[in-house]
Structures are given as C-alpha cells and as structure tokens.
C-alpha cells in the first residue's frame, strides 16, 4: 500500500481490457493435490471448469496450465482471483525464512512461554508443545514500557534503537516482527521502530497493525506468522504479477471471505492463511442468498480433512483465533472448523472400538483401492466396496480403481467383528459420519442454533458422496449439491465480494464514554478499511460499511459480535447484546457490559453472473451398478449423468460427472435446476 | 448386549464427547472469573444413571478422574428416586466424591420420558468460597472449617427455576458474589446444554439402546485397560516420592506405593504413605484413585476413554488416618493438586525399572499457585489466581519442553496484558529460567520466571507451590531439575518465601516466582 505505483486506477484497467480483448474472469483454488479452475466469460457468462495437478514447486506454472485446461491463455484474462494454501503450508511445515522478534525488554521469551497448556492430556510421547517459531537467539528486547491505557512508563531511547540496529546488522535477518507490550493501546513505539528498521531490513511488521488486540502471546504469534510469510508471499506474488500483469485485476482470496488486491496481501500475507476453505464458504454464502436458504451448513470433505462452516442469512460466521500447526493465529477469519477426517483417513479397530483418522493414507500411497500400494483401510475404500465409485473411471487420469484391494483392506476388520465386508464398510461410513456430525454440532453450538433446521451444502471430493448418510444421522432434511461442486472454492474466488476488514481493541464501558470519541474511533477504522478498496479503483459510493461491536459483560473475557448502525444507539446495542447472550447461553443478567473491540468491514458487493459449468468431458452414459445401502444386499442402482439429469430421481441412485459422485441413498430423491444445482430431499414414501 | 451394533456404540460415544465439550465451551465463553475463562480451571462430564462416567471434555485430568466418583457418591446420600426433571444439585463437600471445597459441582439428572438416563456434571474451581483467607487456601489450616464454606448437596434449581434462597445463602458466604453468581449461571447453562444433547441422542437411537450403549462403553474401556495391564510384566514394584514438608518436625511427607501386577489386573497399595499432615496438603481417597487412574492410563500408552470401566481392573488401597484418607474434617485445599501429583510420581518411581521408556522424569508436578487478593474500596475483592508450569521431565528419546503443564493439571497462565488491565499489579518481567532443567543424556525442560509489583496499598498473597525443597527427580541416572524459588523484595531487602504461605503485601513489594526445571534422563555425558 505504501508503493503508489501498485495502485491501478479502474480506468486504466478498462483501457487494457479494451485493448487486448481481455474478456474472461478466472477463479482458481490451489490445493495440495489439485488446482481447480473456473472461467467465466464477461459477455456471454459461458462457464468452464477444470482440474489439473498442483505443482508445489512451481505454483505459477500450474496456474498457467490450469488456464490452458479451460482453453485460455494469459492475454484472455481480465480478472484473476485465487485462493492458495501456499502460505498455510509454509507455516505448518516450517519452511520459513529467518525471522527476528523484537519485544519489550524482559518479555523476549513470550513465544517460548506461551500459555503453558498442552494439547494431549494423556500422552507423554508427544512433546506438550512445539518449539517457538523464532528461536531464543533471534528474540531481542528493547527497553521501553507502556501500561494498559497506552501511557508511557518508560520512553524508547535513541540508544536502544541504535543497539537494535547494530544487532540486526550483525545477524542475517530477512524479516522482523515487532511486538511491544500494550502496543494495541498506543502504537507510537512500534511505529518509531518500524520507521528506523525499514532502511536495513527487507520486511518489517508491527503487532498493532497485524492484530491490534490484547494478550501478548497471541498477538506476538500472529505478528511472527505474518513476518515469516512476507518473504514467501512477496516472491510468489511478484512472480505471479509478471506472468499475469493485470494490475488491480489480480487478486487474492482473504481468510475473512473476500477478495483483496495483491499489494495489500504483500504487506499482510497472513490474510491468505485460510484462503482456500474461505473461498468455498464464500461461494456457499452466495448460493445461500441466491437460493433463499436462511441457515446453511457447508460440508467440504476432501482427502485428509473436512471443513464445515455455518451460514446464517447469507453471511458466514466469523472467528478470531485459529491454531496453525499448534500455534495461535489471531485475526478475523471465517469460522471454518476443520477435522482430520477425509476420504483418505485410516480406519482402525482396537479393543476400545472402531475409530476413523486422524492418520491418513495421504495421496501416496492413498487408499487401498487406488492400487498404489496402500494396504490400510480408508473411508474411500468403504465407498468403493459399497459400489459408490465408478470402477471404470480413471481419477485424475492416473488412478484406476481396484475394488478387490479395498475389500482386502477391510477384510481383517470384518473378520474381527464377525461381520461381512459390506456390513463393515457401511459401519465405517456410519462412524465417519458421526465424526462429521460432531463437527457440524460444534459450529452450530458456538452460534446457539439447532443444526437440524439447516440446509446441508455438500461439495469437495467426498461431500456429495456422504451427504445423505450424514443428513440421516444428524436429522437434516435438505441437501444442496451446487453446480461446480468439484471446483467450488474456485467459484467462490470469483463470486465473493470485494472487501476489507479492520478490527481494534477499544475496551470501553457501554455507558459513560463520549459519543464523539466513539465516532472518532469508527471513523479511523472506516478509513483503514476503505482505503485499500479505494486505492484499487472502487468508488467510495459503491462501498457499504458494516459495523460490529464485540461485546461482553465486564467480568467475562469472550466477546460476542453484535452488529450496529451509526450513529450509535447505545440502548439498542445493549438490548441486542442481551438478546444474543440469552440466545447463546440461555441467560442474561443486568451486569455492566463492555465493548471489547470494534470491527468494521468495507464491502463492494459482487455481481459476477455465471452459467451452468462445462466440465470439458463427455457426459457419462446412463447405466446400472450394484450398490449396497443397508444390510448385505446389493441393489441394482441407476447411474445417471449429472449434465443431462431431468425430473425427479428417486434413490437409490448415483449421479456422476467427470469430477463428482453424488450418492442418492434410499429414502432420498434428487432434482436439478437450470443452473445444475442438485436438490436432495426425503422421498414422500 | 453382544448384539449391539459396534458402529452405533461409536456414534453415541462421539455424541457424548461432543456434549461434554459443549459444556466446557459454554463455561469458558460465559463464565466471569478469570480462573475459569482464562485459566480454564473447570471440567465437564456425563455419567450413566448409576453415576458411572461415560463422557468427558478435554479438561483437567485430576477433575475428570475424581468425577468418576462424584455422582456415584452423591447417589448414596441423595437417592435418584427423589430427583425430578429440571432439578440441579450443587455441592462441594469432600465426602461425596469431592476433592477440595473450591471445586463446586453442579449435577443435573437427565430424564427422557420420565426415565432417568444420565447425569450432566459441571465442575468449576471457584476463586473464592469464603473461609479464613480470600481465595479459600489457608496453608496452616488444621481443619476444613477454617478453609471455606461447606456446601452439602442442596437443590440449586428445579423445574420452576433457580432456587433463590439457596443461591442467596451461598452468595452471602463468598467474597465476590457478583462474579460467583455469573459463574454459577454458566454452570447451570452448561448442564442444560448437555441435557438437550442427551435427549437428542435418545430420540435418535431409542432410549433403551442409548442406555445399553453406556454400559457397553464401560466394557470396552475395561477391555482396553486389561489388555494394557497384561502387557506389563507380573511382579511387585515399590516407589516413593516426597512432599516438601508436613511430616514430623516439618520433614518431607512421604507418598509410598506398592504395585502388584497380576495378569490383567493391578493393585495399588498406598497404605505406606505418611499420616494426616497439619496443613492443607491432605486429600481425599477419590483424588488418590484419580491419580492412580491417570498413571495407569499414561503407562498403558493407549488411547482409551476414561470411564468407570477403565477402573474395574484396578484395586486401589488407602489407609484411614493417612494423608490420602485423612477423615472428613481434614484441610484438603492443596492436596487436590499437590499430593495427587506425588502419587503419580511415586508410581513412576516404582515402574522405572520395568518401563522407563513409557515415563518422564520429574517435572512441575504442582499447581504453582500464587493467588493475589486485592481489597477494593467498596469492600469487594479482586482475585488473581496465577498458576505456573515449569520444565517438563526428559524422556528416553527427547529433552523436556520448557514452560508447560504436566500430568493432572492443564491450566493456563494469565497474559501480562490482561493482568495489568484488571488488577493493581505490574508484571516486571516474564522469562524462561535458563539452565533450570536437570542434565542427563536428555535434558529436563527449563522453568519460568515472573515478577509481580504490587500497585495497590495492600494485597493478600497465598502461595501453594510444591517442589521448593524436594527437586523434580531424574530418571535412569539423570540429574534432578532445580526446585521452585519464590522471593519477596521489600524496601531493598530480599527474602525467600515458603511455598505454603499466607501473607500481606504492601505497595511496591515485588514477588518473583521461579518455577522448577524438569529432571534429566540417563547419565549426563554418558
């Protein structure tokens, strides 16, 4: 944002578009195994989707290959939005550049101390916590001190700055995270240090900008994550800008569920941390609004994890904290809850019962039925045994399904339980669905809603296959498998709003602060949230600003989000808070309440239209296959092409296209709409 | 019973765990006391209709272990036949499967179509339950009456709502009634949440199947525990460890265990432990059992559900009149988290010759508690409960980790920024205590240092810290870790404080806690 040459005014984009006939908008989601792409023509709304293998070592090349897979090249592209796990993977796998932490003297060990708690209560073999992301040798203390009101107890002396500069000069540091005590209440010392460091260190980030909220460990951890991600993100995004010189048309998907321009991401790469899952949720929110479903649970089941999220009235729930590789990352994000169970999760039978995951067969060797040497039974093997997967299909053009291998993998468990292989496979799916149901429970409970009133939106490789079983277990009555379900996160990149979000700790008692101070704080936040949008060509009058107060009773610590309008009506805010607290916890009291933090989101609504996607493959032929849904008896089951589905299909049936398999269990029926969305509901009989 | 679908059992197990996790979530998100909302000193459980534990959150092991007895003992005093839908019972007395008076339990019987099928149990460590000293920890208490208010099982709610007279009676006896009421409301809300989930499970699977499954869960855990014990070599093993003081003439008090492994059963005889001690380090037999159950599970190296079934193959003996079965009127505030840890340590010492690779050397096996109570001008109190981890003991294949919690506790520190915003305290420094870990082939983890400056005219301090005299032990020849040190700087002079003290602080006093390092594993340089 500091470099004005990066801000491409909208009219400049228009100019390029006209000149080069750039007429395609692209969304991509770069996952661990596949890169998904969706392309929409700006004039005709023609929509194409494809999947190509990801290239972790050459992500930009994989993106160009994905473009080729939908018949396009760089000069065709007008807008390119992508979600990527690149930053998250680097953080989790700790392939990080050398980062230094600058902290208040006496508090340099903040990362190593953490919060003491261990993750595993009953295991001594695993270390109770991970080593700090920055080793002690690269943590530096500067003498200065603020109190919690921001008052200066000890000024930051020039001699301290000189001492720090000398230390940095003596060490080869690429990136510095600055996190001083109580900087959220007064950023002056952090700002001063950042200015002085900018000349000698390539990347500097300050905690009051990354996460201006109290609790020093969580803030320091988030700031260090950001500092570690900066060199990686800048290198990657610069390369991408070269390959796709689209100016403001090149965008990245934000963990909070919106698009942000590249210059912003280079300063705050942390916003990409949950980019991929957030894009899927964002597409879900759009569908929920378009189809008028007030409560939606997203169900995105992949190979190793399953992500779920709750969407109420077209808006996804937000969260403040998430653990990345065992360390806290604190920033506003979509409240995507992930569990370590996916198609590749290994099934184990111990004396204590049958469990699924968290160990996974991964992509190599993968499930036994992939025939690549995997011998341990997985959820996918259970699906193969039951006939849900097409034995003729070649997954990703490389894998030929081996149902016998799946049976061999499950046989030992079946023998131990004295059951048939098919019954055991059904049982495995039941247990897997119970783990999924627990995840759905978790996200609905946090919001205090009854999950059974929700519509289940199923996507990802496994979502549409497990949806009816999960719905039966959880008591859901409607499932939607959206068009483009196999590249849904890519679609989300394209259809999301253009938006930016800013949040700051204020800790004001609800009654007794001057209205002018409140208005001033809001103005500052609005300024901070709208500037990146305006700088990238969005007109101020097109931006809608949403305000949320994070509120709690004075004696509590967890704050609940309560939306409000300006000018502030204190009485209404208080009433709304009490109602929300009652809704969540079943009681409310007359205690004094506090506004812990203010959150402002600037949104430019998206209106990208798209049409029924072309998967670029011929439709599968209608036929029949033996499938098992209950007991040990196989029933002849209709296999129907998704592209040409007409009328109401009564289960049992399996609906397929090149990239997805939808299981319609007995007791369910399915129909498609013009867009290619599938609606699964319970059969009347 | 054998006809039970094994998959439905797993489905219900997930449902019970989810319900208990939801209880803890409701507690941490809506409770008032920092000890609950920041420190997480609370636990949630679900039991069957007989009080046998079947589901628990990922909370505090010592609570979870004791909760296996909490409802079972309650039912002996309050027959289930007298309970009605909508009832909730509150109590904290030790005789009913209790541990110490600060841990207040709320129990809700769950009825489905008039049939009692389960209990939801919420335990929370209240920062003050009245008594002699703010915070309810009195180091030299001679009996429990000096410690805190004793609450026998009384109805705190019924179908018609909260029982106001009982609530008022309780609130009249605590130092922070406003926070206390909020915490108690959160406990009631947590048990109501569990009640909803249990009813859903019954509606989905049928009440009879649900009840049968609970019983099946016990059998499965019993099988897992028996298989684990079977792996251990038969024999008799003895071990001991010591509390800093409490013995005759202030000598260290002894915890001794004699373990007999026979086939798939194990006997733990703790009779050789010291007599009742003249301070707050006594504990209840339930806590001794809880500590043994934890150690047995750890030594198994297996994932298993901690329920009543897992206890069946274990015989646990305590001696009446001893520190582990001191009688109903003994002071027990600290024994809950101090003496219990020493039971685990004694068991580890006993098993060291047989399975050293499954154990860790000695670590911060103490609550590391420092409670600051600040009297406010309006006669209310602000309580800061600080609990501190230290260096983990080393293992056969790795160094110990610094600044962590071990074994029966898992509470967090309070951030310096939260302390300074809420209390008249400035944190002068928080750092790793380098070189506190014991040397060895693998090194023990390092402890932490935190200094508190008092900004108020006065403050009441309680220390409750073990491992200040008896160092965390090394394993297989490793060296011990450095012990805890607590100092007070006042008017330029520095004095060392006892790990079990109640004292008045003045403005500008600086109290510094240095927590212990872990013991090493294997000979150093070897």
UniProtKB/TrEMBL annotation, chain A:
One of its GO terms (molecular function) is 5-oxoprolinase (ATP-hydrolyzing) activity. Pfam families: Hydant_A_N, Hydantoinase_A. Residues 219-499 form the Hydantoinase A/oxoprolinase domain. This is Hydantoinase/oxoprolinase family protein. GO terms for biological process: glutathione metabolic process. It comes from Vineibacter terrae. GO terms for cellular component: cytosol. SUPFAM superfamilies: Actin-like ATPase domain. It comes from the Bacteria. Residues 26-198 form the Hydantoinase/oxoprolinase N-terminal domain.
TrEMBL record, chain B:
One of its GO terms (cellular component) is cytosol. One of its GO terms (biological process) is glutathione metabolic process. GO terms for molecular function: 5-oxoprolinase (ATP-hydrolyzing) activity. Pfam families: Hydantoinase_B. Residues 5-523 form the Hydantoinase B/oxoprolinase domain. This is Hydantoinase B/oxoprolinase family protein.
